[in-house]
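Supplementary Methods. Inverse-folding protocol.

Structures were first reduced to a discrete structure-token string of length 176. This string, shown here, constituted the complete conditioning input.
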């Protein structure tokens, strides 16, 4: 896969040098509630994951890309295609921006647009979906901006701070 380039950011494959960046994100407890993680990841496990990151999406059934700034080349987030299903031409999509300073800056929008274009034009997917917590207004706004529609609610799906919260399923169908 070639680098996916936008006006302000580009998406690239993970590199061994991303170990500390991924370690920081995966062990950030505020991200755990959106990623269904409950325990920290060791550097050893992340290193093993990075050693297998060369697998293509057809082999691994997922694709994780670093979101990097064009001007500084700094990695500021991750965007994933997961549960890749080539038979039914669909995949889930998830995104995380690593710091509060980079949130609401348009980085997530540009990254999501690049991944949507890649998924529909390169991978020839028919649909993308996203699982979003009912209180995650930033993600709801981001995904609906690109035409994702809420198609279902999973009641009391996630336990966050000892309370159950709904998770919503959003879907974008490629009608081309």
């Amino acid at each position: 896969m070639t680098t996916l380039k936008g006006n302000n950011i580009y998406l690239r494959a993970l590199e061994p040098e991303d170990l500390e960046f991924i370690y920081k994100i995966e062990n950030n407890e505020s991200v755990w509630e959106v990623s269904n993680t409950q325990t920290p990841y060791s550097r050893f496990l992340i290193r093993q994951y990075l050693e297998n990151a060369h697998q293509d999406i057809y082999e691994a059934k997922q694709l994780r890309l670093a979101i990097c700034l064009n001007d500084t080349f700094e990695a500021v987030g991750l965007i994933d295609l997961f549960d890749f299903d080539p038979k039914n031409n669909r995949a889930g999509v998830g995104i995380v921006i690593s710091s509060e300073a980079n949130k609401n800056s348009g980085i997530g929008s540009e990254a999501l647009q690049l991944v949507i274009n890649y998924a529909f034009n390169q991978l020839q997917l028919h649909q993308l979906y996203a699982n979003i917590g009912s209180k995650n207004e930033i993600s709801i706004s981001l995904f609906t901006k690109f035409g994702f529609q809420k198609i279902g609610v999973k009641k009391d799906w996630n336990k966050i701070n000892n309370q159950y919260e709904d998770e919503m399923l959003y879907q974008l169908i490629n009608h081309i």
